[in-house]
Amino acid sequence: MKEQFLALYQNMITEMEQCSQRFTTEKEQIEFCFQTCERNWFQLQQCLTQLQFSNDTEEIWFFKVLKPRFTALLEYYTLVYKAHLFLPDTDPAEVNNFWQKELRFAEKFFHDNSSFYQYYKSGDTELDELYFVRANNDPTQPSHRSYNINPQATTTHDPLLAALIARERYVHYVREKMGRPPEGHPAESPNP
Questions:
Q1: Per residue in 88-126, pLDDT tens?
Q2: Distance separating alpha carbons of residues 156 and 142, to the nearest angstrom
Q3: C or N: which end of the chain has fewer Cβ atoms within 10 Å?
């Protein structure tokens, strides 16, 4: 099971890495990467509907490790696309202020979720069963993420984990746009 899912993820990453050769503008690349992530996440969801985890450890791995690899990219490309929609295109001072505001917005998200972010970054596993097993979901608390409309494809904390991972990457992207070296939150180098 893990090998099949990891292969799906790797194929998605490979396809996204080739987008810069297929598309010339950053907007086209962002759109292509988002659509690629979305298509692969829906494919993974289809597999999930027919999958029975043999134990909580498998389920935790799926929702703590695998799913956020897909959904964090959906969140990341949503943030980048939104930034491009609202990015001022004239005054360099306005552009700099825009990126400063985006950086503060991301940092506030980390601050607002610092307890869980610390849990995740520390590698702790003590609360994994509570956070990443569907049996612990509260049916009265639907997910606010459009990619999580299926309650069988989400847990209480995997959307938050995806949002934090996406913002780590977004902070790196924003700092790059500002001409500043990445610092603070480790993130993969974004494409775009």
A1: 988 999 999 999 999 999 999 999 999 999 999 999 999
A2: 9
A3: N
Contact (Cβ atoms closer than 8 angstroms) between residue 73 and residue 166? yes
Nearest of 32, 8, 11, 12 to residue 20 by alpha carbon: 32
Any domain includes 190: no
Q: State both tokens at 10.
A: 């790797």
Task: Report which DSSP code applies to 185.
Answer: S
C-alpha triplet 163, 65, 133: angle, nearest 5°: 90
Residue 183: pLDDT above 90?
A: no
Residue 25 burial by CB count (10 A; 0-12/13-18/19+): exposed, middle or buried? exposed
Given a contact cutoff of 8 angstroms between Cβ atoms, the answer to whether 168 and 187 are in contact is yes
Query: Measured between alpha carbons, how far is 127 from 132 in angstroms, rounded to an integer?
Result: 8
Q: How many domains are contained in the chain?
A: 1
139-144 average pLDDT score: 56
The reply to whether 73 falls in a domain is yes
- Domain membership of residue 125 (yes or no) is yes
3-state class (DSSP) for residue 181: coil
Give a yes or no: residue 166 inside a domain: yes
Amino acid at 32: F
